[in-house]
Amino acid sequence: MENSPDSAASLLEVRGISKSFGAVRALQEVDFTLRAGEIHALLGENGAGKSTLIKVITGVFQRDAGIVRIGGEEVAPRSAKAALQAGIATVYQEVNLLPNLSVAQNLFLDRQPMRFGVVREGEMRRRAKALLADFGLDIDVSAPLGNYSVAIQHVTAIARAVDLSARVLILDEPTASLDRHEVEILFGIMRQLAKRGIGIVFVSHFLDQVYEISDRITVLRNGRLVGERETASLSRLELIRMMLGRELAETTSARASAGAQTAREVCASFEGYGKAGYVAPFNLELRHGEVVGLAGLLGSGRTETARLVFGAERPDRGQARVEGAPVRLQSPRDGVRHGFGYCPEERKTDGIVAELTVRENIVLALQAKRGLHRPLSRREQDEIASRYVKMLDIRPPDPDRPVGLLSGGNQQKVLLARWLATSPRLLVLDEPTRGIDVGAHAEIIRLIRELCDDGLALLVISSELDEIVTYSDRVVVLRDRAHVEELAGEAIDVGSILAAIAADGASVAHEGRA
Amino acid sequence: MKGLPPVLITAIVLVAGFALCAMQFPNIASTRVVGNLLTDNAFLGIVATGMTFVIISGGIDLSVGSVIGFTTVFVALAIERWGMPPLVAFVAILALSAAFGAAMGAVIHVFDLPPFIVTLAGMFLARGASFLLSTESVPITAPVYSTVSDFALRLPGGGRLTAVAIIMLAIVIGGALLLQLTRFGANVYALGGSRATASLMGVAVGRMTVKIYMLSSLLAGIAGIVFSFYTSAGYSLSAVGVELDTIAAVVIGGTLLTGGQGSVIGTFLGVLIQGMIQTYINFDGTLSSWWTKIATGVLLFAFIALQQGLVALARRPVAKRAGAVS
Q1: Fewest CB atoms within 10 Å of the CB: A190, A235, A369, A458?
Q2: A170: helix, coil or strand?
């Protein structure tokens, strides 16, 4: 076994991990090092590979290549239970405990103190109380866990993991459902555990919290390692650039500026549109033959904006207009009725129906729009399906193949075809290039431009800034659930988008210190 | 510990119902009637104890009625035609039914099939097998049967606590202790909370599933023997539909049909409520006995609605939190 100089200090070493799902390479030769007693933030946008990495480390997925070492010893857990025995415990955002059991039973399930084949309830409660007291928690441990707040459930899960002699603790978005005070309590516990020599992996998309708690940061993007830095010496702008952008040199945007001069007709407009606690009111104009990009970090309000525009979420203020006429968008049905289409980010769960064929998936939205009384004949269906299979170059070009058997890029095209078949005036695409291979990537981008040249209005969300720069006529930058900047024409480049996203971070940090 | 409020409500319904019955027919409030009630429902109490484990673990066992039927036929034939000593026949049928339950549990776990389907298949299988053995009622004349039938503890007030009632009470108490005090019991609740999570927390989900269905079928076998004592015969059509009475008793007893919550004591109270309604109808004399089913149906509705209400109440604060986040 090779001995790197810091291997004595490193508790968990991950070297050259790769993992593919079919044609999609979720992780490519990723390295990750966790030292004993440190809090290490693992960052990246959706689909960057954070969850896959965690699942490979904890044995939920089996890796294709690479090694994992704990305390210098190579481990290959085949299940979450085996990982736990190796000293790796994971606490997920949705707490993996049993809400119907008492807190004490949750802490000691399957290892309760026994006497004569009977659980020593009193002893178990006393131990549970003592264990939780270590974490500054004084609660009735005989009450069902479900009676307590998510924060207490998290602490219980952590307590259980630590009591199972975990040396590596992975916290996956632990703060997402906690309020400020609860986050403080959790951070206190994390610091205390780190002092005891436990290595903590902290996954979060709250950058403020990352800066507050972590010692080091590892950033992933598109399944690759971008870098590992000391938190103290990494500026926020630099961090966001690591998460979103590629090298600036690559991104000389070759956008067709021909259309930019002609004033295009407004397709849909939104004035003071918003929903309390969801997205701050915004103004947005979408024009025919124009691509508007939505840029921002995960959780900044991009998807929320898209859902409001489509009608998937009800606004509580503002006015929407389609071709100048005021309309109400209260449900996806309204959106479809006004000629809107929406390709959501979670293709697998919200979009395609994997068991149905390409043809059936393509005609789905059109049939829904026509209503049950006017079924499309098989001939019409075949005609539509083969037209889009040809137009979008869906491969293999077999309309009767179940969509589940297609690659990610082709699934995305089927989804696109479904909406195009309804001849929409506006198409909303949420992360259209997520999880598809590089070749299909370029093709989807080409398609976006082509559709746009045909007069369609497009609203596209993407975490890939170079991509957004390539196809957008205008870019709206979001931050903390508000639209903060709109860039147009020549002003669009990766640098200015990054600056707009990061500006807030700097100001918040200052406010925080003041 | 768990699900106390629904159990309390069941207890209140039982006490109030009994009081109403006693007001109309004062004779009901006697040890004689209560003793008979326990005897008449002994087999139901036994099989419902097993069903409680199954339902708390998030499953269902539709085969129990058929297993009872098969047991009565098997026991009757074994003793009367095949010349087996009764005790040997009992051991044989209990081993057989336990193996039957274990097999169903294994199929449910290994093939990841819904318990509903697997135990439905088990129900047809066991019922069909009992017809294969004999299509007609086989009377049991072994001396042990009359001895056991005659045995009873005298209760003050002229009532009799029969052997089958004693067996049932022992099983109910044993079941309650098993569920509340042992690691096995805790794991049953854990499975009902979430199989995936329980597995992540180290519970051997497969082994538990096999054991739970084995327990249920074993108790159904015991209930079958008790039933044969009760009727002194084996008949392939006996205990048809009992699985549904059993599920009703479990649910009326406050056990959540979706699993994770419930108690054996509650189930016992649920059995008593059904017995009480039957007793009332017998006393009245003019009502059709099918009114038992109607009353049970109404109660079942009421309890399911009540549980949904309680569950919704329990979930509300959590839902609010989640809403604030997304």
Answers
A1: A235
A2: strand
Question: 């896959």: which residue's tokens?
Answer: A52
Decide if A271 contacts A311 (C-beta within 8 A).
no
Residue A120, CB-side half-sphere exposure with 13 Å CA sphere = 10
Is-contact A154 A183, C-beta < 8 A? no
Residues 233-292 of B with CB under 8 A from A: 260-261
Q: Apex CA B315: angle with CA B310 and CA B316, to 5°?
A: 100
Q: Are A209 and A175 in contact (CB under 8 A)?
A: yes
How big is chain B, counted in residues? 326
What tokens were used for A39?
A: 């809090």
- Residues in A closer than 8 angstroms to B201, CB to CB, are 96-98, 106, 109-110, 160
- For residue A290, the distance in angstroms to the closest alpha carbon of chain B comes to 30
Contact assignment for A98 to B318 by CB distance below 8 Å: no
CB of B24 less than 8 A from some CB of A: no
Which CATH architecture describes the domain A10-247?
3-Layer(aba) Sandwich (3.40)
Instruction: Tell me the β-bridge partners of A340.
Output: A426
**CA A500 – CA A495 distance, rounded (Å):** 9
Q: Which residues contact B148 (CB under 8 A, 6 or more apart)?
A: B163, B164, B229
Residues 25-84 of A with CB under 8 A from B: 80-81, 84
- Comparing A409 with B105, which gets the higher pLDDT? B105
pLDDT value of position A23 = 67
Distances (CA, A) of B219 to B68, B84, B126: 9, 22, 15
d(C-alpha A277, C-alpha A280), whole Å = 8
Q: What is the pLDDT of residues A299-314, one digit of tens each?
A: 788 888 998 999 888 8
Q: Are B77 and B131 spatial neighbours (Cβ–Cβ below 8 Å)?
A: no
Of all helices (H) and strands (E), which one includes residue A153?
helix A150-163
State residue A497's pLDDT score.
86
Measure B322 CA to nearest chain A CA, in Å.
Answer: 7
Contact B246, B90 (CB under 8 A): no
Domain coordinates in residue numbering, chain A: 10-247, 249-339+425-513, 350-423
Question: What are the pLDDT digits (tens) for A161-214?
Answer: 888 878 899 998 888 777 778 888 889 889 988 998 899 999 987 888 899 999
Domain A10-247 and domain A249-339+425-513, same fold? Reply is yes
Structure tokens at B103: 């097999």
CB B127 within 8 A of CB B69: yes
The closest CB to that of B325, out of A97, A117, A176, belongs to A176
Assign A410 a pLDDT band (cuts: 50, 70, 90): confident
Query: In this structure, are residues B49 and B267 in contact, taking their beta carbons and an 8 Å threshold?
Result: yes
Select the residue of A110, A111, A146 nearest B314 (Cβ to Cβ).
A146
Inform me whether the C-beta atom of residue B298 falls under 8 Å from chain A C-beta atoms: no
Give residues with Cβ within 8 angstroms of A60, minimum separation 6. Answer: A79, A80
Q: Among 3.10.180.10, 3.30.160.20, 3.40.50.300, 1.25.40.10, what is the CATH number of A249-339+425-513?
A: 3.40.50.300
Chain A partners within 8 Å of B183 (Cβ): 110, 112, 114, 119
pLDDT, tens only, B90-124: 999 999 999 999 999 999 999 999 999 999 999 99
State the nearest Cα–Cα gap between B252 and chain A, in angstroms.
19
Q: Above 0.90 for ipTM, yes or no?
A: no
- Residues of B with Cβ-Cβ distance to A180 under 8 angstroms: none
**Cα–Cα distances in angstroms (integers) from residue A226 to residues A242, A334, A394, in the given order:** 6, 42, 32
CB contact A144 to B (< 8 Å): yes
For domain B4-321, give the fold. Answer: ABC transporter involved in vitamin B12 uptake, BtuC (1.10.3470)
Return the pLDDT at A506: 45
Q: Is A116 exposed, middle or buried (0-12, 13-18, 19+ CB in 10 A)?
A: exposed
